[in-house]
Design brief:
Number of domains: 1
Largest sheet: none
Structural class: mainly alpha
CATH topology: Globin-like
Helix content: 55-70%
Shape: globular
CATH superfamily: Globins
Distance between the termini: 7 Å
Number of helices: 8
CATH architecture: Orthogonal Bundle
Strand content: under 5%
Length: about 150
């Protein structure tokens, strides 16, 4: 969704692909050395960072590569199934994401940062729910969608 005030998507607002890539790569590097999260992320597919870039590109109003290549929300379910993410891990994930946004200099305006924080928080709750053993598959699968901001 675009910003009604300036007509930009979130992806355009942050400056496009390069800042997005820097954001995700910083986060990914940081999470691999985090005491609470490193084990979960070192067991993840080696393509995790690329998948996360594609996901954020899509939700920030860019190309729909994540949906096309990774089966959208169903792919998210499959990636998180049976991980048993704890609330402490979820909260740490959110904190590291927001730290990465600061570290790479994503825009710091209130509207963007509050929207980013809100969506990362919501997404982390969704991922934690999907990670529970026996979590039911959704039908129909909702679209990945684009962040409102």
């Amino acid at each position: 969704m675009t910003d009604a005030g300036n007509g930009k998507t979130m992806l355009e607002h942050i400056g496009g692909q390069e800042p997005l890539r820097a954001f995700v790569e910083h986060f990914h590097h940081r999470v691999l050395s985090d005491e609470l999260l490193s084990e979960m992320f070192t067991r993840a597919k080696p393509t995790h960072s690329a998948h996360l870039i594609a996901f954020f590109e899509e939700v920030m109003g860019g190309r729909k590569i994540y949906t096309q290549r990774h089966n959208g929300v169903e792919g998210l379910f499959d990636a998180h199934a049976n991980l048993e993410i704890t609330d402490a891990q979820r909260r740490r994930f959110v904190a590291l994401m927001l730290e990465a946004a600061d570290a790479v200099g994503l825009p710091n305006d209130e509207r963007f940062r509050s929207a980013l924080a809100r969506r990362i928080e919501t997404g982390s709750m969704f991922s934690m729910t999907l990670s529970r053993p026996g979590a039911e598959r959704l039908w129909p699968w909702p679209p990945v969608g684009t962040y409102d901001w």
